[in-house]
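Quality-control log, excerpt.
Job 1 of 2 completed; input and output follow.
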Amino acid sequence: MLAAESESPHKSGGGRLSCCLVYPNRYHSAMSNLGFQAVYAMMNAHPGVVCDRAFLPDREELDELERTRGTLLSLETQRPLSSFDLIAFSVSFESDYLNLPAIFRLSGLESFAGSRSPLQPLVLAGGAALFLNPEPVAPFLDLVCIGEAEPILTPLLELLKEGAESRQELLLKAAALPGLYVPSLYEPRYEGDRLVAMNPRPGAPPRVARVWDPDVDARPSVTEIHTDATEFSGMHLVELSRGCPRACRFCAAGFIYLPYRGRSLDLVRREVMKGVEQGRKVGLVAAAVSDYPGIGDLCGEIVAAGGKFSVSSFRIDHLDGGMIEALKASGQKTVALAPEGGSQRLRDLVRKGIDEEQILAACDMLISHDILNLKLYFIIGLPTETQEDLEELVALVSRIRERVLAAARANKRLGEIQLSVNPFIPKPFTPFQWCGMEPVKSLEKKWKFLQKALGRVSNVKLQMESPREAYRQALLSRGDRRLARLLVTADRVGSWKEAVREEGLDTDLFVNRDIPLDELLPWDFIDGGDAGRLEREYRRAFRGE
């Protein structure tokens, strides 16, 4: 059973467009996702539309459905998903692609759109993973939102309410709307292992433009439904801005949400104070929280009003003393910083824009405010990384540790460094999209070096994302439509390794290969803005600029 929710915007009624918004993961993950909550609220606020929710069942419920051959039902009205007019997936992470075939199977629907009856629901998908690269799951989908939901949903819902003579006519009309991609209207062509063309059918635009919300003050992105069954239980999340102004060369957030847009301080303050009045801790959400103008004063206002707040991470070169004091007053004992590269050479390569002196100064500022628990994010396996770069990472962590220990001894309490190490994963629409991921065995060797150097050091905790999981994420990030069959086979046989063997795919070609700059990429049909900028930044990176 799910924990009780506060009042939701769900309404019911006859003669409306019935939608089911599906998050292809568990309930607690979905209800921590602002994008999912925002789309749910927007759909239910639209005249003539009623929207339920559905989620990947938890392990126990999933086993029961499999055993009894039961049907996945929506949360609000307990209807089978196959009875809705529209099934809409909200997909933030490529790893959730793995769950789509299971949800189709549990709903009594064919995974592949071309095999479904015209009487069955249309299937739509959106979310950050989809407007990076929808191709691994494109054969499952009738419609894909390329960009942010706010400018796309209203015209799409109006079109679906209006209807058409046939599903094909409806999809052709949808393809003419900004930000909507209709996979069935495009035919990929391969030569050997390479994708060489993506041919639009009559009526489809040659490229699909990514769309973005030009007025982020028109509608706040906040927690719409509060529930205890989430990792952010008791918290009111408020989005401060869209995108990131920094444009680090490995990071998709700095490119796919361009242009960077901050919400007005007045709007943010109103939403923040709603959370304080409800007695909830406020979660400030942004790719770069400390870049938000007036953040220190805002945090001080929250504390002065008797509230508490939390943030995800800070920019090392933009810490605000007022914000740190307010964090301390809020009871936050750990602050996350992201040097990313272990050496200065790698930080310059990824265009991080910080040096060791700034990193140490940021740590000193936090320590001086009696915040002695630091979480540090590093990436290993970045292009051109060497053993010397890893040794510099170890030396940097050791210098930070010395500072934490000195302050901890003076204050007669413990301090700790949590080291989060993640393999580099090449992402579409970044300057490093052409770079291959380092092989798993090489990453495992580097991980063993870090374990030997830091794993037994007191006051340092070391954790790393599995290189094999990172490999699979890279495959789904860079893959094309040929992966759809692999996803279905993996669901059927219950083993990823066996599915790869059965399908006969050379997955290393997608993951580990450096892609020539003149080769067609699976996501090249998306017009994401200044494509030349990515190539310029790629060339500048490897020229050491």
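Job 2 of 2 completed; input and output follow.
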Amino acid sequence: MREGVAPFAVELAVAAGFLALAVAFTWPLGRDLFGATLAGTDPAMEMFAVHWTTGHLLRDSFFHANVFHPSPWSLLYADFALGSGILVWPLRLLIDDPIPLFNLATLFALAFSGWAFHKLVHDRTGDRLAGALAGLMATHDSHQTLHLPHLNLISTGWIALFLLAITRLAEKPRARDAMLAGVSFSLSAQSSGYYALILAVFAVLFGAAHWRRFGDRRFFAHAAAAAAIALVLTWPYLRAFAALAELIPMQRSAAEAVTYSFQPARDLTSTGYLWGALLGTGGEAAFPGVVAPLLAIEGLRRRVPGVRLWAALAAILFALSFGPRVILPGLEFPGPWALLSFLPGFEQMRHPCSFGALALMLLAVMAGLATARLRADQPPGRGALLGSLLLAAAAAEAWSPPQKVREVAPGLAPVYAELVRRPRAPVLEVAPTNPDLLVWAARTGYPFVNGLAAFGPPYNLALQRQVRNHWRRGDPGDVDASRPLRLLRERFPDTRYVVVRAGAFPTLGRLVPAMDAARTFVLVHVAEDGDRLYEIDWGAVSP
């Protein structure tokens, strides 16, 4: 028993170290986990998704969230970061509020990612310091730091475990590694649709690099088992996504793919203090620093086992990150993207640069493998010093300004505190793209006609546009005869409540007299902050 305790304690200590790094790199988020969150619309969407998935994981309603009512599959309009939701799922018994749950999911995702990449390199080399270096570089490189507000994109720990599992399978097929490969692929795929496609391509490339191994029946059986496990676990998501794709068009244009492809002149920048001052902080912040590339080159020079394969795979992924058109200073030509663009799923991908994100992670793995060799070649005592210096250099390259956060008040806004005293029914908030409406949807559980996502049901989005243009920005006029109300009656006839956030958004003040004068809306409550709650009386005005 003692033999198993020490390794577990070490793994726990490493994970705790990466959790401390996560707090540092997301600061000042850790200062108030219950009353603030990362700023922006994407964190609001991810916050809602984490809260919904952890509360509905084993229910039939899992993909049918309470936004964009009454559209089905509404959870799928944005990535729902299941890989990170799983990490905080056990905490749902203790924490029901979406804000701390999302904040902990963010910190745990980063810590888990660092630990998992550390585990990959440590498994290959037996070197903890080299593994820590790889975990730091893969999790907190400039590109990942840029995407800290995107929980789906920083949910990379399962990618590291997938790489670990398939590497082990290629050496010695075992059932546990086949299981790990299948589970980790599925959780990566259900964290981000981008990662689903990228890892599928990567798995094919990795298999092609080991094509001779498929002649071994045992290897073939385990590889097939891993693929079957991944398919079975991912099938509900694939089936739901296919059903959603039949309802609304979800294709991205080629122009979008070009816009969000890797363009060196724009994207070789950095979020860090050190390189950002020299290269700028715009674009995709894809500059990897100098420590990781130099170590990777040294690993190639020394022929460190595994480095050549990772380098070849990283080069292919990097080439794909250029997207449909390779755009260089004074030069432009078709990229290798065309070789894959006909495959299912690629018509929804507008961010080819994400292929480069995995290439940067592989670069970190190569750096870790090279570091282990360099440390092993040092005289006694100097290996630890070398590892510590490399860790310090990598941290200095990655260190970046504090994150932007926004405060979120606890509990419910007064108007929603009144709403939840009334029968449960669909709600329309007249501030249709306000990120806080997802907080109210999570905290109340009421179905909302509104929603925020990368995609959305056409009629819900049309209603939001009309509310914005006719009620919020324009002259509301006769609300009973307005276009938003006609669309609301035609497409969302079961909507019962309308919340006008006149207190939170003073520009809605001119809508209030028009709403009060309308016969369709019955004012039932005015909150102390000025927000107003109306009930709809569809019988008051003839259609």
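Post-run check on job 2. Strands lie at 36-38, 325-328, 331-334, 405-407, 427-430, 497-500, 521-526, 532-536.
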